[in-house]
Design a protein that fits this description.
The chain is an all-alpha fold and 227 residues long. It is 71% helix and 3% strand. The longest helix has 28 residues.
Length: 227
């Protein structure tokens, strides 16, 4: 096999490890090990943050034109960013029973987002809330807000999928790129610490919220600056 073709398939194989993370996350979910679920979701996040660089360097669109890496990536992302986290929210009773039907809206809204042709723009933005349900589940689990607050957050983010606000794609947009990437790495390390040491002082959970808050605020700023 041509070396370039082999490298392109190796890049696809690396992306495919996200499927293994999803499967192991489901296994941990069935065994009622929520922290292990978050660990596998974090590993999947790292794979997703790095596989695009490998795919572009391997020129997968040139050397494997018959195979859509984007479709593979979307399937894996739906599992790790939506399906597994939503199942964890349900299993861990992070929403009171009266609010749990919202999880169906979450699954449908996210599927719409992934299937929308406008979901990713050429200039490095997501259109509509980019289905970061792994992040939502993480903070619902560690903060345990009142049921009405949790329900309002889930409903709000689900509806934001249909609201055409542009959200920053940190590793594809020059706007705040190094803050986005560097902040994301620090945020991931703090999340890892919380997963490994869940009894850590709650203040670290609130400290870790700084990055998601910056991401949302900066995305809104960029969107309305360009409107």
């Amino acid at each position: 096999m041509n070396r370039s073709i082999m490298l392109a398939w190796m890049a696809h194989c690396y992306t495919s490890t996200g499927l293994v993370c999803a499967a192991l996350g489901v296994r941990a979910l069935l065994d009622d090990r929520p922290l292990d679920v978050f660990m596998w979701l974090l590993v999947a996040f790292v794979v997703d943050a790095t596989d695009g660089v490998l795919a572009r360097r391997a020129r997968v669109d040139v050397y494997t034109p018959q195979f859509s890496g984007r479709k593979l990536d979307d399937i894996i992302d739906y599992l790790n960013y939506t399906f597994v986290p939503v199942c964890l929210i349900y299993q861990q009773d992070l929403l009171p029973p009266a609010w749990q039907p919202l999880l169906a809206l979450t699954l449908i809204a996210s599927a719409y987002g992934f299937c929308s042709e406008a979901a990713k723009t050429r200039d490095g933005f997501f259109t509509g809330f980019p289905s970061y349900w792994n992040v939502v589940a993480f903070y619902l689990f560690f903060l345990r807000p009142p049921g009405a607050v949790a329900g309002a957050l889930v409903a709000g983010f689900a509806l934001m999928t249909f609201w055409p606000v542009r959200y920053l794609y940190p590793n594809r947009n020059p706007e705040g790129r190094w803050v986005g990437i560097g902040g994301g790495m620090l945020w991931g390390l703090v999340c890892l610490w919380l997963i490994l040491h869940p009894q850590t002082a709650p203040v670290w959970v609130y400290v870790s919220l700084a990055y998601p808050a910056w991401y949302l605020a900066y995305s809104f700023y960029l969107h309305y600056r360009q409107v």
